[in-house]
User: Which sequence fits this backbone?
């Protein structure tokens, strides 16, 4: 009765846990991660900052209207003559024509627009546009990385759940075997050492089950973190992983990656941005010309002109640093160094893409071969264990062989699930390494940008249709 009550309590606990758990498919998990992950949130803000930086640079070439005003109490020898004249004129008809010169309100207004900056504003706009293009692609790269992280964490949960199942089955097999050993020990056909050895093996397997259950809970917590959910959220994975052989060649994967990786294209934009910044620094060698309109007045009261009459001027102004002690030359050399660094980073990014694609492809093919090998090994180990049990019951084999056969069953099953989920994780990793689109196709975006389209237009043209199948082989279906 005690065992029955404990069993019923466990069943009720699991039922309540399942009912409160979040049931997610792989695609639902990815969508949740794309919606909640902090990395995407931060990349989106970087993109917003780049958009407003472009707006700032564009507005630098427009009109600037400024007004300055001051209101002061004044005194000193400079104003004594005016004050004396005011006193002498007091009581006459000309009294109102002269100010008291006790206060002074000065106002000046200027309106200017740059006409020629030696290429500074034009190149700054060009650099800001490339910075926005890079931010667009870096945001897409963050989405692709988060998608990979979500898939990897989801597969890890599936793997750990499978390993829990393996250990549960191992415990059940040993419990059944222990019952057989106890029966044979009671009738005196086996030694007590067989029963003790089986009990120890069962205890070790139960510990392995507890460890596997803990690893499963940690994998769920990791998945929750990536999905933007509380760490203690209970999740039930609803996908059953099926093995489908992968047919793309490594060369095809690499060609696709070099054309579509958003961070690779963003690195190329960073080079162009650095080049534009260098050209902007060279404007220091040239003059700056602006159209200017300005006016001023001052008086005793606010917005009065009784100290000085209003005056205005319209014309042009030029500023040219004929000699600036080598500042412009140093700034150009500094920008050239930044430009060379950007070029080196772009080359390094290409090398990184090649390495990531190759590593992911090798891992994929290795796991693919291991799946076939370990599947056969599992069947053989299970058959060996069954034979060893029968031979032991019949008294023609030892308990040690049964234990060894049972360990092989657990080992081969663990190896099979490791190979299966390594394969699925490697597929997701290869998809990230290739730059398979999540929301925008980086290649289409780059082509639209080359045609002179703005960032919003390029994004609109490069949008990936949500109803398209998100398969790794999609670029090569034809």
Assistant:
């Amino acid at each position: 009765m005690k065992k029955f009550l404990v069993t019923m309590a466990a069943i009720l606990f699991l039922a309540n846990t399942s009912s409160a758990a979040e049931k997610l498919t792989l695609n639902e998990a990815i969508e949740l991660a794309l919606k909640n992950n902090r990395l995407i949130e931060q990349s989106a803000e970087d993109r917003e900052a780049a958009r407003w930086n472009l707006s700032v640079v564009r507005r630098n070439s427009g009109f600037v209207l400024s007004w300055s005003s001051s209101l002061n109490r004044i005194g000193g020898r400079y104003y004594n003559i005016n004050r004396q004249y005011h006193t002498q004129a007091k009581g006459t008809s000309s009294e109102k024509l002269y100010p008291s010169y006790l206060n002074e309100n000065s106002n000046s207004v200027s309106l200017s627009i740059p006409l020629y900056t030696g290429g500074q504003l034009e190149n700054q706009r060009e650099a800001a546009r490339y910075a926005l293009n890079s931010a667009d692609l870096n945001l897409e790269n963050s989405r692709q990385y988060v998608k990979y992280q979500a898939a990897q964490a989801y597969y890890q949960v599936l793997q750990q759940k499978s390993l829990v199942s393996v250990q549960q089955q191992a415990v059940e097999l040993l419990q059944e075997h222990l019952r057989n050993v106890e029966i044979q020990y009671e009738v005196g056909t086996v030694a007590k050492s067989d029963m003790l050895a089986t009990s120890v093996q069962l205890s070790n397997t139960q510990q392995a089950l507890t460890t596997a259950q803990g690893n499963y809970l940690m994998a769920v917590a990791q998945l929750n973190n990536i999905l933007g959910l509380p760490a203690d959220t209970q999740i039930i994975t609803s996908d059953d992983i099926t093995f489908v052989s992968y047919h793309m060649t490594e060369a095809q994967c690499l060609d696709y990656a070099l054309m579509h990786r958003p961070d690779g294209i963003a690195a190329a934009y960073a080079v162009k941005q650095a080049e534009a910044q260098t050209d902007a620094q060279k404007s220091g060698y040239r003059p700056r010309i602006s159209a200017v309109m300005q006016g001023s007045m001052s008086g005793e009261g606010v917005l009065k002109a009784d100290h000085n009459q209003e005056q205005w001027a319209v014309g042009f102004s030029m500023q040219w640093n004929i000699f600036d002690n080598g500042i412009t030359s140093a700034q150009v050399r500094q920008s050239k160094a930044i430009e060379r660094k950007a070029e080196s980073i772009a080359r390094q990014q290409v090398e990184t893409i090649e390495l990531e694609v190759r590593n992911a492809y090798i891992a994929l093919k290795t796991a693919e071969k291991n799946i076939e090998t370990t599947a056969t090994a599992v069947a053989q180990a299970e058959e060996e264990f069954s034979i060893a049990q029968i031979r032991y019951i019949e008294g023609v084999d030892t308990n040690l062989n049964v234990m060894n056969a049972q360990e092989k069953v657990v080992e081969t099953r663990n190896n099979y699930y490791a190979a299966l989920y390594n394969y699925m994780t490697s597929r997701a990793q290869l998809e990230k390494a290739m730059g398979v689109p999540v929301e925008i196709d980086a290649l289409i975006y780059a082509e639209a940008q080359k045609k002179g389209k703005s960032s919003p237009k390029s994004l609109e043209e490069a949008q990936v249709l949500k109803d398209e199948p998100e398969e790794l082989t999609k670029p090569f279906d034809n």
